[in-house]
Design goal:
single chain; 74 residues; mainly beta; two-stranded antiparallel ribbon; 2 strands; 7% helix; 14% strand
Length: 74
């Protein structure tokens, strides 16, 4: 999603669910947007090696694994 902003200086914060907050804090920067300057250098985001996708349902319980239907995805 691209959001048009007026020219000026902005504080940019990066968020990525698989990264540690202290690693993301180091990526904060001030950016200046103008007619002649409107691009950013690429940002390298470190992924937390201990991140897991596992989470609980809205009741704080583990999800029930789906029943095997015998269908094999091609």
């Amino acid at each position: 999603m691209v959001v048009q902003r007026p020219d000026g200086r902005y504080q940019m914060h990066v968020w990525y669910e698989r990264s540690l907050p202290e690693d993301l804090k180091q990526l904060d920067r001030t950016v200046t947007i103008s007619a002649s300057s409107h691009t950013l250098e690429p940002i390298q985001i470190a992924e937390n090696p201990d991140f897991t996708l596992a989470h609980k349902n809205k009741y704080g319980q583990d999800y029930v694994p789906p029943a095997s239907s015998g269908y094999v995805h091609p």
